[in-house]
Amino acid sequence: RPGLALCAGCGGRIQDPFLLRVSPDLEWHVACLKCAECGQPLDETCTCFLRDGKAYCKRDYSRLFGIKCAQCRAAFSSSDLVMRARDHVYHLECFRCAACGRQLLPGDQFCLRERDLLCRADHGPPPDGAAA
């Protein structure tokens, strides 16, 4: 209710006829709900993401906290196709042998040594009992 809530942005009492509630316990003046990174106003027309009590626009939240490519360290967009190796995720174009630079395709055998992907030609056959 206006007049009783404290703004999570400025800390002041919300006496405006309208307030924005982003989660059950965080409320803002309409003018105070902005992206903590770029300052873009966050209202009912755009998506708002919360982290540690701060609000972010979708672009900055993804850039700061989203999964990043293990090779180029860039964030993924929702339309990106990815390749995975253990707990690492790569853009398709970044999924390459560290030794020869050949792009690794689905079905190719490879080895992951620390952070380096190696094609079969550059890592040789897997040791006995190990899977590629």
TrEMBL record:
Keywords: Developmental protein, LIM domain, Metal-binding, Zinc. It comes from the Eukaryota. It is found in: Nucleus. PROSITE patterns: LIM_DOMAIN_1 (PS00478), LIM_DOMAIN_2 (PS50023). Gene3D superfamilies: Cysteine Rich Protein (2.10.110.10). One of its GO terms (molecular function) is cis-regulatory region sequence-specific DNA binding. One of its GO terms (biological process) is positive regulation of transcription by RNA polymerase II. Its main location: nucleus. InterPro entries: ISL1/2-like (IPR047169), ISL1/2-like_LIM1 (IPR047244), Znf_LIM (IPR001781). One of its GO terms (cellular component) is nucleus. Transmembrane segments: none annotated. SUPFAM superfamilies: Glucocorticoid receptor-like (DNA-binding domain) (SSF57716). Residues 5-67, 68-129 form the LIM zinc-binding domain. PANTHER family: INSULIN GENE ENHANCER PROTEIN, INSULIN GENE ENHANCER PROTEIN ISL-2. This is ISL2 protein. It comes from Ptilonorhynchus violaceus.
